[in-house]
Amino acid sequence: MWLMHRLFALAISAFLDYYDIPYKVVEVNPLSKREIKWSDYKKVPILMVNDEQLVDSSAIIDKMSDKILPKKSADSASDDEERKWRQWVDNHLVHVLSPNIYRSTSEALESFDYITSNGNFSFTEKLTVKYAGAAAMYFVSKKLKKRHNITDERAALYEAAETWVDGLNGREFLGGSKPNLADLAVFGVLRPIRYLRSGRDMVENTRIGEWYTRMENAVGESSRIKA
Predict the structure, then answer these.
(1) In its keyword annotation, does this UniProt entry include Lipid biosynthesis (predicted)?
(2) Of 59, 64, 79, nearest to 19 (Cα)?
(3) Number of H-type helices and E-type strands within the chain
(4) Dist CA 116 CA 28 (whole Å)
(5) Which terminus, N or C, of the chain has the lesser number of Cβ atoms within 10 Å?
(6) How far, in Å, CA of 197 to CA of 136, rounded?
(7) Is the pLDDT higher at 123 or at 140?
(8) Average pLDDT score over residue span 102-107
(9) Residue 92 and residue 182 in contact, taking contact as beta carbons nearer than 8 Å
């Protein structure tokens, strides 16, 4: 599904921003997908590095971190904790976000207004993607809600936020004094919803706001190269 893959792509952008690695973004039209017709891999994210195609967000981050971060002990407790929470993002958190972002028709339109405003779409494409996409995702979100046994979208979102804060166990970041890959993964998928209605509700009704603000300050300005 396009939204979920887009969230994974944004987790990669958080990693690149934090480590000040310049990158360009190509927004993929969710209806035509013409921007990735050249690739045999028909999902996003796709990261091109010196003509090498990397796919799957976790694999991309693993490969990039191997290149730029110092080697750590393979059996360290901190590595195990980091790995556990990264899996939690992939297997749980992202599945909670979709039903919240598209909980109502107005929230679905709000989300697609953000998407089309930040994408490379013509005026006609913006209208088509915004209204057709919002309508489609509103109904898809209801199926996802049922598939993942979610009865109350907001309650599930708040519970996930509180679970993450509990996992911090009083630390500034899961990585201690500075973010680790799990911090960046959580921040990456929450960043696009932070100022949507679902994200505002999350910050107002849970303890995650202070950590999120620390992450905003730590990640800093985007390293994205404007087209």
Answers:
(1) no
(2) 64
(3) 10, 2
(4) 10
(5) C
(6) 19
(7) 140
(8) 80
(9) no
Compute the distance between CA of residue 168 and CA of residue 88 in angstroms, rounded to an integer. 14
Please, what are the domains in the chain? 2-219 (1.20.1050.10)
Contacts of 106-111 with CB under 8 Å at 24 or more apart are 107/196, 107/197, 107/198, 108/134, 108/135, 108/137, 108/138, 108/141, 109/134, 110/196, 110/197, 111/137, 111/193, 111/196
Q: How far apart are the first and last CA of the chain?
A: 26
CA pair distance 151, 136, nearest whole angstrom: 20
Residue with tokens 């209605």: 197
SS percent in the chain: helix, strand, coil, step 5: 65, 5, 30
pLDDT at 11: 79
Q: Identify whether the C-beta of residue 129 lies closer than 8 Å to the C-beta of residue 28.
A: no
